[in-house]
Amino acid sequence: MTSAAPDARLIADFDARRPAALARAISIVENQRTGFDAVLGVLHPRIGRARRIGITGPPGAGKSTVTTQLATAYREAGLTVGIVAVDPTSPFTGGALLGDRIRMESVALDPGVYIRSLATRGSLGGLSSATRAVADVLDAYGFDRILMETVGVGQSELDIARSADTTVVILVPESGDSIQTLKAGLMEIADIFVVNKADRPGADRIRTDIELMLGMRAGEALRNVPAHHGVDLKKIMNPARVAREAAASDQTQTWTPPVLRTVAAKGEGIGDLITALDRHVRYLEASGELRRRRRQRLREQVIDVTEHKLRQRLWRDDGTNAYIDSVLSAMESGTETPFTVADALLGRSGHLLTRT
Amino acid sequence: MTSAAPDARLIADFDARRPAALARAISIVENQRTGFDAVLGVLHPRIGRARRIGITGPPGAGKSTVTTQLATAYREAGLTVGIVAVDPTSPFTGGALLGDRIRMESVALDPGVYIRSLATRGSLGGLSSATRAVADVLDAYGFDRILMETVGVGQSELDIARSADTTVVILVPESGDSIQTLKAGLMEIADIFVVNKADRPGADRIRTDIELMLGMRAGEALRNVPAHHGVDLKKIMNPARVAREAAASDQTQTWTPPVLRTVAAKGEGIGDLITALDRHVRYLEASGELRRRRRQRLREQVIDVTEHKLRQRLWRDDGTNAYIDSVLSAMESGTETPFTVADALLGRSGHLLTRT
């Protein structure tokens, strides 16, 4: 199952920066077509230069507008931009996302911008590995910034966060009511908060709510501080102030997610967002967190690739499928169970699993 | 890695229909705790009696209200009901679902109803296998009807459809605008359509839209009909009528999803839904489709169980993780890639993968 060498012409055209080769390479890795691993293997040493920015939030928060504005601003600064719009295709959310794609047309004609929609519903490898693979191709091609956008439903927002160096969570004033229930999930993924449509009522309140939530995180850290000379530090310290002071004392070693305001439809606040993104990259680099995140991505990629190979070997084997079919009746009658069948299947599949 | 015998006391208590044993068995299989496979293996021969009904639709369609009303109606008919409320936990949708759970309280105190919420965000096995496993436990315990409800985001609605004998898709008049874009996904999963909140404006229009969509499916089938004596059948036949006639000619061998109207909050239309569910089961049995769907579930369970065992063997092994750590630097510098590492890892892991 060792892969053949990748299509030499494709790689040569890719190196010559021909857009058709870029599109073809992306299609191959997105759909895990024959040779996708060889293509990614050849490109692997060239990745690591691009900054990968994940953008997520609830439906209607203006993610595509913010993404388009960011792309425009980066282009004005002379940087090239790859956009991966991840659509966790659902019969019930598909329509909204289609609309989003259309709204991106203002940057779609710029040759310095490349937009790719991913809709890998139910794919074996999952959105997470498809997103990472497509971002790898864009990175190897030489894009300076890679914007990965997805609506936060299911676990697509987790997949995006895993694929990004920096994750931006976009909320709107209307998200305020649910912020208390969102706490854990948001804290897990957000490096930067954006309150978009901040000219609407409620923008201040949601900003306060988020900052309160961030203060609670500092409070959790404090629980590990031992009582000092009989004084309970937790009782005399303001968690939010502790977090601010920690951030101020060494801006490059700790990170408290800023809460920015934008009115993306008018371009307001996008400059501040770019500044915050730049500041976050400096923090990632100085603290060693960038290397840690990228190593974690490599680990996850090894796991994905290994499991993909195992699945291919097992489930595309005629003998395996014939074996399962032969025991279906026994499972229906209860004399075998899926667990006894799985054990037997692994016992008889050694040659498939370990061949090189 | 062969499993130990399951806790004999747990199984005895389960057989004595003690609710505490039911709750414990569900927790064990939901969280894939030690011995979960032994529990499911013992229960496996007892499953197959319950009817499994999946209920899905967009946020706000009234899924929990319909579920509660169905449960109430089944209880009045002397049947017991297990409810699996699947929450594809997202930081952005969590709040809405929490509200749904609370609305189910009217049936929650009835000892003939058992409600379990599943929120297995990012779990290895995925929602699909957790849902199926919990439904298996409820089935083995003796519940007559198992209602599995989820909001249609991500691919949770696909997972539910895979776990159910019959899938009910609930829409509301407001869903009408997006129905054209929903087509493919809905046709894939819906056995019965319900237009809930049908006392609102637009109910007739969405019903017509769905029926048109169903007619288009018949139209697609017609494309395979060859021209007959020079007459193009496609041009003279009304696809919707063809579908209706096909359904009328042999009600037990073909199935056209009915489009029902409910006002679930007032209990209106629930009787018709129960009738349609009964009619669908008769179709499933007479056509052989029930056996086909259940065999497909068994196949998928064998695949899930096998992959779960492989993952456990590989990724919980200290040697495997130490090996990945040892090649991280080489992957960073580009002398190794995740693909060469995966090949090497499979080559050295034969003893882990095939041991019995």
Mind explaining what this structure looks like?
- The first copy, chain A, is of the alpha/beta class and 356 residues long.
- Chain A is 57% helix and 11% strand.
- Chain A has 17 helices and 7 strands.
- The first copy, chain A, has a 7-stranded parallel beta sheet with strand order 3-2-4-1-5-6-7, with helices on both faces.
- The first copy, chain A, is globular.
- The termini of chain A are close together.
- At the A-B interface, helix 3, helix 5, helix 8, helix 9 and helix 14 of A face helix 3, helix 5, helix 8, helix 9 and helix 14 of B.
Integer average pLDDT of chain A: 82
What order do the helices and strands of chain A follow? HHHEHEHHEHEHEHEHHHEHHHHH
Low-pLDDT sequence parts of chain A: 94-99, 217-237
Q: Largest inter-chain interface? A: A-B, 82 and 82 residues
Structural class of chain A: alpha/beta
How widely separated are the two ends of chain A?
Answer: 6 Å
Radius of gyration of chain A: 24 Å
Give a quick account of the main beta sheet of chain A: strands, pairing sense, barrel closure.
7 strands, parallel
Number of helices of chain A: 17
Q: Multimeric state of these chains?
A: homodimer
| Residue fraction in strands of chain A | 5-15%
Largest beta sheet: strand ordering of chain A: 3-2-4-1-5-6-7
Gross geometry of chain A: globular
| Tally of strands of chain A | 7
